[in-house]
Design goal:
Chain lengths: ~725, ~130
């Protein structure tokens, strides 16, 4: 047991008995998407709530006794408290859920969900980007639907980096050691009540992994952590950072996640009916499971069949270099101690990962997962097709139309991403139970009945919140961190809270073309600076620490923000995370997405924006290829020689300028006598109406249950 | 016109920096096309939008309220405005621990009124009729 894990119990705040379960609520992430629970913490001590970036665990650690005593005798607050705690108990009992009703046989079993990152809340920084947010949303929705998911991942003590930007616009990565007592985690206890510690064979040594538990309503997450005193210093560092290391660190992390993860589930007494591998990082799950069957006397082939029957795999990237592949010698070195009775079948196992991407044969984690999973899916209809084309060679002799690859388009967790302002309108005009039925397109048609005046007031308020957030961050950077004046200007402090605001927030990397909008700076400047019809663009996003190309994109955007040509109407918001993302997707007027087609598998930030009435202006890639219907946003659709990337960039940029000049700016600024942009609001309503039901995580998780989990769990077991 | 003694200004400058902040002053980089018209002079911007309520109005409001006696504070403060001045008074009152009422006209934008309420002030609505 390490010192920092003992602290978890030492730092418990002394709560008045009447509100004694507040700590328990703070340690269940489901508070974050439960409106009344958020209200409890917010009204307990509002300045502290903001100061801790909405982290109730840290808040209860810092809070003085007075506010606790005040609420403990406040009848209205206590009524909310009682309601919230009753709901929490109800959630955990998992009765009357969608899954219990529709898939009763599944509800009593469990589904293991492996992912290298999970984005549940900013207070648990174990995510880098879209993949993690998708995993987090999947867990939250599984809880809402009563799907018995158990997540397995890593507790990275240093998480992903904080982004700092120099006065010159260069990204600096700062790794901050997480204070365990600030995060909603607890040591996982085995069925006999002992802290779970699992031994993982790594090379010719054994590494121990401690296990943390995170409660996400009905769903549990087990996070592995190698930072134990018993481990050698270099092994303690293995789980320190997400995507922080070289290939050698990476393969070791993946062995711990896959092999260690299966062992943790066993130690915790779980026997999952289905194993879901979210991306290839956890592919070594397959090794440990085949080995377990072999040690019970199964042949390799029978074991593989049984593993295949119960494994589903989701692939997320159409970029070839985005798939983890290791030299065979490296894999063999680190798997040396992992074989056990599988040793005799080593060559057969290694062949499962064999793939040549043009640079010679490698052990490819995606190939391993594709060959060992009975069901595979891409994350949008288009990406399903791209996946088949990319990986056809995995299934030699299988005709294209029979390849075992489906498409389940991503979705976003609506209670997490929907602003209170829009939610309040839906409650009034769709009914108090709208959230229970939000994946019903007929119900969402009633979005069209929301009066323009009310919708416009909500949109104006959300934009105002965004700018007050930006200014507050800039103020902190200026007063507490001594940031330079140019950084304060580049952060968007000069923005006009009533002007048409475009958001672009995503990882800074080549294929997403962050600088595309600057292709013709003069034409862009004319659009931005038109008197009375100003347009402003907010950028945010981190570059991968090893991606210098991405960092150069960021630096050039930062310099544009200071270029007088654009009149202070370009800004870069630093240190993009879940907290910043909420303000941006809710407060911008338009969400801009211009990847090089078909390299964006799905994209989900645009869905979060669209359900808040921030319509999407995008290339017809990923989800937008199926989401755009002609009147719910804008399609950047330019024809150019597909083999000349320069020509495609230029044509796409021209198409964006034309859309802005001819459609977006006039629709936003043409107001009636009451100052209401009626034409604009028609698009806003269509955006909410069409995206809310179809691109909700609710629809997505139901699809996973119907098309992946239930068929796997119901197939007869291999003999 | 009432004359403000230099001492009062110096006194305020010493006393107001919390919650008021010293905001940055930046030189406005004028595009080449417009630079000719400036005749060699320069433009500087004082970024008072960075103040806690987004405007310089917090300065005066805080300077007045900080000088009130505990007894006066107990009785509370009030103002008539639906804009930045009301937010300034509301924030300064909250910092001083004094109750605050703001009279707003019924034509005031809802977002402004909501901002005043978020700062803890009581809004009293008035009509011009």
């Amino acid at each position: 047991m390490t010192d920092n894990r003992q602290l978890t119990t030492i730092c418990m705040v002394q709560l008045p008995d009447r509100i004694g379960r507040l700590e328990e609520l703070a340690h269940d992430v489901s508070w974050s998407w439960t409106r009344d629970a958020r209200k409890l913490f917010r009204t307990l001590d509002y300045p502290l709530w903001r100061q801790t970036a909405h982290n109730p665990v840290r808040m209860l650690k810092l809070i003085p006794p007075e506010p606790l005593q005040r609420v403990a005798s406040d009848a209205a607050w206590l009524a909310t408290y009682d309601r919230v705690m009753a709901r929490l108990d109800d959630v955990r009992s998992a009765r009357n859920t969608w899954c219990a009703t529709e898939y009763g046989d599944l509800a009593s079993r469990s589904i293991a969900y492996f992912s290298a990152e999970f984005a549940l809340h900013q207070s648990l920084p174990i995510y880098a980007g879209g993949l993690g947010v998708l995993a987090g949303d999947h867990c939250k929705e599984a809880s809402d639907l009563g799907v018995p998911l158990i997540g397995v991942g890593f507790m990275y003590p240093q998480g992903y980096f904080h982004q700092d930007v120099t006065t010159d616009g260069w990204q600096q990565e700062a790794y901050e050691r997480l204070d365990w007592t600030d995060a909603p985690i607890e040591p996982a206890l085995t069925p006999d009540g002992k802290p779970c510690v699992t031994a993982v064979p790594l090379g010719n040594r054994t590494v121990l992994a401690a296990v943390w538990r995170v409660r996400v309503g009905r769903v549990k997450l087990y996070l592995l952590d190698t930072d134990l005193e018993e481990n050698a210093p270099w092994d303690r560092e293995l789980s320190a950072r997400l995507y922080g290391g070289d290939r050698e660190t990476r393969v070791q992390q993946e062995i711990i996640l896959g092999i260690g993860g299966v062992r943790v589930l066993k130690a915790m007494g779980c026997e999952p009916a289905v194993y879901h591998l979210n991306e290839g990082h956890a592919g070594f799950v397959v090794l440990q499971r085949i080995r377990d069957f072999c040690e019970k006397g199964w042949t390799f082939e029978a074991a593989l069949d049984e593993v295949r029957r119960t494994t589903v795999f989701t692939t997320h990237t159409p970029v070839a270099a985005g798939h983890d592949a290791f030299p065979f010698a490296l894999v063999e070195t680190h798997l040396a101690g992992a074989w056990g009775d599988l040793g005799g079948y080593r060559e057969k196992f290694l062949a499962l990962g064999h793939h040549d991407n043009g640079g010679g044969p490698m052990f490819n984690m995606t190939a391993l997962a594709l060959r060992a999973a009975g069901a595979v899916n891409g994350v949008s209809q288009l990406h399903g097709e791209v996946t088949k084309q990319m990986w056809q060679s995995i299934w030699p002799g299988t005709p294209y139309e029979k390849l075992p690859v489906k498409a389940i388009t991503n979705g976003v967790h609506v209670p997490t991403w929907m602003s209170s302002e829009i939610a309040a309108l839906l409650e009034t005009h769709l009914g108090a139970d709208w959230l229970d039925r939000h994946d019903d397109p007929a119900l969402c048609d009633r979005v069209l009945e929301i009066p323009d005046e009310e919708l416009w007031a909500a949109r104006q308020a959300l934009r105002a919140f965004l700018f007050s957030f930006i200014r507050e961050r800039a103020r902190q950077r200026w007063t507490n961190e001594g940031a330079s004046a140019p950084r304060i200007v580049a952060a968007g402090t000069m923005f006009d809270q009533f002007a048409l605001t475009i958001g672009f927030a995503r990882r800074m990397t080549g294929y997403k073309r962050p600088e595309l909008i600057f292709s013709d700076p003069d034409r862009l400047a004319r659009i931005l600076n038109q008197p009375g019809r100003n347009v402003q663009i907010l950028f945010a996003g981190k570059a991968h620490p090893a991606d210098d190309v991405g960092k150069h994109h960021l630096q050039r955007i930062y310099k544009r923000a200071l270029d007088p040509k654009f009149g202070g109407r370009i800004a870069f918001v630093d240190d993009y995370d879940l907290h910043v993302a909420h303000f941006l997707v809710q407060g911008c007027d338009v969400w801009m997405n211009n990847p090089l087609k078909p390299l964006e598998a799905s994209g989900t930030s645009g869905m979060k924006a669209a359900i808040n009435g921030t319509p999407h202006m995008s290339i017809g890639d990923g989800w937008w290829a199926e989401g755009f219907n002609g009147d719910n946003g804008w399609l950047i659709d330019a024809q150019a020689d597909p083999n000349d990337p320069g020509a495609q960039d230029w044509a796409d940029a021209q198409a964006m300028y034309t859309l802005l000049e001819q459609q977006l700016v006039p629709a936003f600024y043409d107001r009636d006598a009451h100052g209401i942009p009626r034409r604009w609001l028609r698009i806003v309503k269509q955006s909410i109406r069409t995206v809310l039901p179809r691109f909700a995580a609710r629809r997505m998780v139901k699809d996973y249950v119907r098309e992946m989990y239930a068929p796997a769990a119901r197939q007869p077991a291999t003999k | 016109m009432r004359e403000i003694p230099l001492g009062a200004i110096e006194d305020a400058a010493r006393a107001i920096y919390d919650p008021v902040i010293r905001t940055p002053m930046v030189r406005l980089d004028v595009p080449a096309s417009a630079a000719g018209r400036l005749d060699g002079s320069e433009i500087f911007l004082k970024l008072e939008t960075l103040q806690p309520i987004g405007s310089f109005k917090i300065r005066g409001a805080h300077n007045v309220i900080r000088q009130l006696s505990p007894r006066d504070l107990q009785d509370g403060v009030w103002t008539v405005s639906a804009g930045n001045a009301a937010q300034g008074v509301a924030l300064a009152a909250r910092v001083a621990g004094a109750p605050c009422s703001v009279m707003v006209m019924d034509t005031a934008p809802a977002t402004k009124v909501a901002a005043i309420e978020r700062l803890g002030a009581t809004v009293v609505r008035a009509t011009t009729e």
